[in-house]
Structure formats: C-alpha cells, structure tokens
Amino acid sequence: MDPAWIGLIGGLGGGAIGLCGVVVASVAEARRSNAEFKREKAWTLSEENRSRLERLYETLEEIRDGYNSAYVTTVHVLATQTAPQRELVTSTMPWTRLRMLVNLYFPELKDRLNEVDKGQEELGGALAEAIMESSGDRAKNARLLAKVDAVYTTFRGAADGMREAVVDQSRKLARDASASVSPK
After folding, report:
1. I need a surface site. Which of 75, 102, 146, 177 has the fewest CB within 10 A?
2. Mean pLDDT along residues 94-109
3. Domains in the chain: boundaries
4. pLDDT of residue 22
5. How far apart, in whole angstroms, are the C-alpha atoms of residue 123 and residue 184?
6. Which of 104, 96, 92 is nearest to 53 (CA)?
7. What tens digit of pLDDT does each residue of 12-64 get?
8. Three-state secondary structure readout of the chain
9. 123 within 8 A of 147, measured Cβ to Cβ
10. Is 49-181 assigned to CATH 1.20.120?
C-alpha cells in the first residue's frame, strides 16, 4: 500500500477518534448541565415554598396573638365591668392572607384552616356575647367566662394543630431539598 494512503487513513482514524471524544465530552457536559439546572430549579422552588411557609406561620401567629388580646380584654371587661379600648375591639386580623397562602400554595392544609376558621367564628361569638352580656352579676359573668374559656381552648387547639402541620411541612420541605441537592 502506498505510504500516502497509510497517512491519510491514520489521519482520518485519528480525526474520527478525536471527533468521538468531543461528542462524548459534549454529551457528558450536557447531562451535567441539565442535572445542575434541575438541582438549581428544585432549590429555588424549595426556597420559595419555605418563604411561603414562613409567611403562613407568621400570619397564623398574628391571628393567635389577636385572639389572645381579645381574650384578655374580655376577661378584663368581665372582671372590671369597664368598656374595652376601641383599638382592641376594632383590630383586624390577616384572615385573607392566611386563606390565600393555604388555598394557593398549601391546599393540603385546608382541613386545618377549616378547623381554625370554625374555632375563630365560635370564639368571636363567645367573646362578643361575654362583652355584651356582662353585668354586675358575678355568677353570670363566671358562666360567660367559662363559655369563653371552653371556646378559646378549642380555638387554640385548632391553631396549634395547624401550626404543627406547617412545621411538619417545613421539615418535609427541608428533607426534600437536601435530597434534591445531594449528588446522585
């Protein structure tokens, strides 16, 4: 065989091997980039959900604090027979934000939200009734306070249950995030 042909065949073979190396390296880089993109996307979604869970937790705590203040105010009214301060009676609570966060982002918490909602309706009614019907009659005030206490305990139980569900969601999110970031 002619030495020129041997050089040509060797050059083509070397070029083909080099081309195969470039293709293999490109495919490997594409897979690595795709895996990195998926990890980054999962991390971003995890951080967004964590932020939403934190807002949900804070909103629930604002509502709990609002009802704690209303409870204390009602007990004060029953004990002293003085009118509550106007700002305590007219305070607003972020129910819209709580409902939005649950319904849009965490529908698995709807049952918990319904329990808290029901508890707040009952508590609001009991607080209003206690304030409106309070009198100088200690026995009557004691009955009103007992009713408020019972409903308040139910509301707090529902709110505590929802808070624990939010914490569980946060822990699950943290586990899922660490699993998605770990190299496979």
Report:
1. 146
2. 95
3. 49-181
4. 86
5. 51
6. 104
7. 787 888 888 888 888 888 898 888 888 888 888 889 999 999 999 999 999 99
8. CCHHHHHHHHHHHHHHHHHHHHHHHHHHHHHHHHHHHHHHHHHHHHHHHHHHHHHHHHHHHHHHHHHHHHHHHHHHHHHHCCCCCHHHHCCCCCHHHHHHHHHHHCHHHHHHHHHHHHHHHHHHHHHHHHHHHCCCCHHHHHHHHHHHHHHHHHHHHHHHHHHHHHHHHHHHHHHHHHHHHCCC
9. no
10. yes
- Condensed to tens digits (0 to 9), the pLDDT of residues 113-152 reads 999 999 999 999 999 899 888 888 889 999 999 999 999 9
Phi-psi region of 81 (alpha: psi -120 to 50; beta: other; left: phi over 0): left
Question: Length of the chain, please?
Answer: 184
- Tokens representing 142? 């004691």
Name the residue type at position 164.
E
Structure-token pair, residue 27: 């495919």
pTM of the model as a whole: 0.76
Q: Give the integer Cα–Cα distance in Å for 50 and 46.
A: 6
Going by C-alpha positions, the residue among 98, 100, 105, 101 that lies closest to residue 158 is 98
CA distance 153 to 74: 15
